[in-house]
Amino acid sequence: xxSNDTPAHHETPVFGDPDLPQEGEIxxxxxxxxxxxxxxxxxxxxxxxxxxxxxxATDISTQPFFWSSFNISPRRVQRGGWARExxxxxxxxxxxxxxxxxxxxxxxxxxxxxxxTAEWAIMTRGKCRVTTLSRTGLPSVDDVEEGDLWFFPAxxxxxxxGLGPDGAEFVLAFxxxxxxxxxxxxxxxxxxxxxxxxxxKNFGVAQEVxxxxxxxxxxxxxxxxxxxxxxxxxxxxxxxxxxxxxIFRLSRSEPVRQNSGGSIKIADSTNFPASKTVAAAxxxxxxxSMxxxxxxPNADExxxxxxxxxxxxxxxTGPHANxxxxxxxxVGVVGRNFGHxxxxxxxxxxxxxxxxxxxxxxxxxxxxxxxxxPPALVSAHLNIPEEVLASFxxxxxxxxxxx
Length: 403
Fold this sequence. Notes:
The chain is mostly beta strands. The protein folds into 2 domains: 69-248, Sandwich (Jelly Rolls), CATH 2.60.120; 253-389, Jelly Rolls. It is 12% helix and 33% strand. It has 8 helices and 24 strands. Strands 2, 3, 4, 5, 6, 7, 8, 9, 10, 11, 12 and 13 form a 12-stranded antiparallel sheet that branches. The chain has a 7-stranded antiparallel sheet with strand order 1-21-18-23-16-15-14, with no helix packed on it. It has a 5-stranded antiparallel sheet with strand order 20-19-22-17-24. The longest helix has 8 residues, at 196-203. The radius of gyration is 25 Å and the shape is elongated. The relative contact order is 0.14.
């Protein structure tokens, strides 16, 4: 006899709907009232998250929301360009990486500055001239374009300037979730807050030289488009090959994984030696493909979606498994060691960048792990015949091929 606290509607778990009590709208076919939502609605937001409103039946419980977006971030605009950011203050679980999306018009300058954290960046549109100084005091001046990276270690000064005809748009990743683009050490601020006699003594000139310096910082401001790269390099005293390269042409590099489903290109300290605290992977998923089930044992994954649309499920301890949707301009974070996949749900390529607070890229493929265990052991866990297990992928795919 059933006890009084036994649910009147009790089912046996089934494949694709494994939990008791059962979760998801799939279980409400004979009880439509259980999905009633009579409170205020925001259909625009709801339409962006179909897998939040009607989650797969395999989702269970809840976990910290791993979606955010530059599309909801306030945009700081000045003559010369704009920026918008996502720090841990905005996105609580993003404690290892903070992100900035910035645009500089042709000639627009992000003023000379430095940070208390390292700065990694990927160019997403246009061209940009970057300058910096090495730890040994040697200068670098170079031009970057779409698909290129740069890396400035913490404390090293740098500047950015948009080039013609379209200026420069890029995404920065700082190796500390608390870092804000509005909290940097700026050249103009230091000059304005240093006594004139100290400036004169430091540079060996009369105090009057500094009479017209800006009294407020510039941050981003318009400027004339720079001349030839060679002329700027000569003027700055650049010696070719004298210092470690601060840029990396990721778009021109060879994929480490590639098949009919897409490709993965990796940049870390093994092929981009300067990048000692941020590793990255540029992932392209064709329609119908997905990033295979995997996890990263050495760092959280901070994602920026460049193109297309997709959905991701994150598997956490508990168990917790939750699915949400991503589009261009969105940002996702997956905790270290959390299992996940990303699936292309659109009809065009899904392109996103994965960044990690680490000097090297690491990944554990679920398929690769299972393929390198005694088949009888895996069969005992999953109740799948050994001859069927033999047809599983035998190594890391990175991306599932389109079959």
